[in-house]
Known about the structure:
This protein is 49% helix and 0% strand. By secondary structure, it is an all-alpha fold. α1 runs antiparallel to α2. It is elongated, with a radius of gyration of 15 Å. The two termini are 25 Å apart.
Amino acid sequence: MDENLASMTVWDLYNGVTAYASHNTDWHINDNRRSGLQGAIYNFLLRPRDIKNYVDAYQ
Length: 59
């Protein structure tokens, strides 16, 4: 495996962080860190990707 590849996809990261922010027991249900973390991971999705050449799997 290429050492430059991540061990997870962007969606795995997004889903994991979102699940933690939504369901962890470390923070009180009204703790602002929950919404802050969810906002941060949403902003992560909006950032431009560094991969410019995608392969269309349906060609």
